[in-house]
Amino acid sequence: MIRPVLLIALPLFFAFLLPVIGLWNKKGVKYVTVGVMGVELLLAVALLDEVLLHPVIDKIGGFVPPIGIVLMVGRLGGFLTLIIALSAFVISIYNLWEDKEPIVRYNMLSLLLLMGSVGMVITGDIFNLFVFLEITSIASYGLASYNRDARGFSGAIKYVVLGSIGSSFVLIGIALIYAQLRTLNMLDIAHRIGEMDPYVRLIAFTSLFLGFGVEAEMFPLNTWVPGVYDGAPNAVVSMFASMPAKSSIFALARMMFTVFSFSGFMWFVAILGLITVFFGEMVAFAQDKLKKMLAYSSIGQMGMIIMGLGIGTAMSVEGAFFQMFGHALAKALLFLAAGYMIYAVKSEKIQDMVGVAKNPLVGVPVVIAILSLLGMPPFVGFYGKFYIVLGGIDARAYGIIALFLAATIIEVVYYARFIKVAFAKPVREYVSPEPVVYLPMMVFAIVIVVFGIFPAPIFAILSKVSMFILGGI
């Protein structure tokens, strides 16, 4: 059996070993990071294969729950761990092209970001969920400012302020739970949640909801996103879109379904998700810079996931997790492509990118990613939106679904505008990308197409989503 603790210990160990390796071979640090993330991906595949048969519970130190620290991984947790590990590995290949000085610190923070993101998904202890959130946040703050320019520092400062407020809310929620129940084990809390004073329980849930909502890019807690995505290195932005944001959404889902089971609160979550969709899509429509357009588009996509969770039916939650998968792949691809495009045209403005995507090594993956985000078959993004819509219809949330479909029209318009410019006749010759630049984009594109045509393995993983809704793991 694969012990989940290995997925935490491996990146943590090498994060602290990299400075020693850097003294011997500074350039080799990047290749060590790729190797570590490759092993992490293999461990995630093996763990998912295990949890398809039964949930995996790893008792740290041999203590029997609810005493001590425990890691708990079900099908959905294993699935999300695989998404994070896959994204981290593919982006680490792109990082071979990046020379972000100091290289050792950059790769240390990348490994800590991976460790924290995975830890948030597989922990069964609510306080350790906070610890992993803090590790993820601290690594994110460092990476967000890595360009060491005014934009990077400005975005990072906003992130630090809002992230600190979010972490404080999470800690308050945990303190209220522990004060009343004297336990930190999530399943134990779920079994005993009825013992809490109803008002204290509501305050605790609200605090946790707000805290994780910051990292989940939920409106109105997402004002840090555009500045960070605009000022951070392109590979870092790809990591943010596919790793910590997804971990926070999963933490939010566990609070909603596993720990608190606040079924009467779901309509508010669905409406908040819908508002996040409209905010992201409408502001993305108004942008003339590529990275800012993608940043606000990412907010809209995260809103779709939150909305699907809030609708609360088996189909809508299944669609939300499918949307997580599709968004992690497509948006990571687009941010990597944006890095090449900005480098090639020496401008961030969309109007200056005339014909930059005519190169098929760039253009084909970009089109695949955009069509997947728009929910077009036969790409993996189709199933997320389709099942969210079906789940909304099943829940008779006709108004929410109608407004959601209207928001997707806005999304179609601004992506069509970008495609028109990027695929026009080139006004000049553009530098061709290095293999380590287009290879990760091709890998993401292939995964999007393969699981769009053959979605059965993902449906097999998500087939137990109804058990998750009822309070499972």
Structure description:
The chain has 473 residues and is mainly alpha-helical. The chain has a domain of 212 residues. Helix content is 74%, strand content 2%. The protein has a two-stranded antiparallel ribbon. The two termini are 18 Å apart.
Helices and strands, with pairings:
Blueprint lengths: L4 H20 L3 H24 L4 E4 L10 E4 L1 H20 L8 H20 L3 H19 L5 H32 L4 H7 L5 H18 L8 H8 L2 H9 L1 H16 L6 H20 L4 H22 L2 H32 L14 H14 L7 H14 L3 H25 L12 H19 L2 H7 L2 H5 L4
Antiparallel strand pairs: 1-2
Main attributes of the structure:
473 residues; mainly alpha; two-stranded antiparallel sheet; 2 strands
Strand content: under 5%
Helix content: over 70%
Q: What is the rounded Rg?
A: 21 Å
Cross-sheet strand order for the largest sheet: 1-2
Taking the alpha carbons of the first and last residues, their distance comes to 18 Å
Catalogue the unreliable spans.
Answer: none
**How many strands, which pairing sense, and closed or not: the largest β-sheet?**
2 strands, antiparallel
| DSSP helical segment count | 20
Assembly state (oligomeric): single chain
